[in-house]
UniProtKB/TrEMBL annotation:
Subcellular localization: Cytoplasm
Organism of this sequence: Flavobacterium flabelliforme
Family the UniProt entry places it in: Belongs to the elongation factor P family.
InterPro entries hit by this protein: Elong-fact-P_C, NA-bd_OB-fold, Rib_uL2_dom2, Transl_elong_fac_P/YeiP, Transl_elong_KOW-like, Transl_elong_P/YeiP_cen, Transl_elong_P/YeiP_CS, Transl_elongation_fac_P
SMART domains in the record: EFP (SM01185), Elong-fact-P_C (SM00841)
CDD domains named in the record: S1_EF-P_repeat_1 (cd04470), S1_EF-P_repeat_2 (cd05794)
Lineage: Bacteria, Pseudomonadati, Bacteroidota, Flavobacteriia, Flavobacteriales
Domain Translation elongation factor P/YeiP central: 67-122
Keyword Cytoplasm among UniProt keywords: yes
Recorded GO MF terms: translation elongation factor activity
Protein's UniProt keywords contain Protein biosynthesis: yes
Function: Involved in peptide bond synthesis. Stimulates efficient translation and peptide-bond synthesis on native or reconstituted 70S ribosomes in vitro. Probably functions indirectly by altering the affinity of the ribosome for aminoacyl-tRNA, thus increasing their reactivity as acceptors for peptidyl transferase.
The protein's name: Elongation factor P
Length: 188
């Protein structure tokens, strides 16, 4: 049993007969009244996000997890195949367990959290950013750069990303995986 003082990002807990991962949290101590912890929880079974407030000192059921490094092999419909980089054991996960499956390139390394009690995969933590090549982008229109104008571009994994007008086909761009947004152009 853990308490609200042990809450941190990435902690997996049992709550409402489901397993949730803490995405965000904020300890609040108002001037009047008891302290509490405001959290944003994501269900590891169906991916739904839930906002919840725990009062200070509230007991929470912590789920023991182990993190293992896996390499993404290939997608097959809604299934994604991964290989453990240490034991070479392969597992298949449904794409709804991934935060942004459209940004996952073959050969990319991810961390997969596995429940130690049931040996079932709970969540996939992607790297903070990925570098992908732009395969299609509309040409930028000259004189349309006075504001932060963006256009839609398709990257090598098939995902659509809003990019600045100066990005062209063949450019490599860095994309933040949590929001799926453009960060910068990468020169090689």
């Amino acid at each position: 049993m853990a308490s609200t003082s042990d809450i941190k990002n990435g902690l997996c807990i049992k709550f409402n007969n489901d397993i949730y991962k803490i995405v965000e949290f904020l300890h609040v101590k108002p001037g009047k009244g008891p302290a509490f912890v405001r959290t944003k929880l994501r269900s590891l079974t169906n991916g739904r996000v839930l906002d919840n407030t725990f009062s200070a000192g509230h007991k929470i059921d912590e789920v023991r997890v182990e993190n293992h490094k896996f390499q993404f092999l290939y997608p097959e419909g809604d299934e994604f195949h991964f290989m453990n980089t240490e034991t070479f054991e392969q597992i298949t996960l449904n794409k709804n367990i991934l935060d942004s499956p459209g940004l996952l390139k073959e050969g990319e390394n991810v961390m997969i959290s596995i429940n130690t009690e049931t040996d079932l995969p709970l969540s996939v933590d992607m790297p903070a950013s990925v570098i992908l090549e732009v395969t299609y982008a509309e040409p930028g229109i000259k004189g349309n750069t006075a504001t932060n104008a963006t256009k839609s571009a398709t990257v090598e994994t098939g995902a659509l990303v809003n990019v600045p007008l100066f990005i062209n086909e063949g450019d490599k761009i860095k994309i933040e995986t949590t929001s799926g947004s453009y960060m910068e152009r990468v020169k090689e």
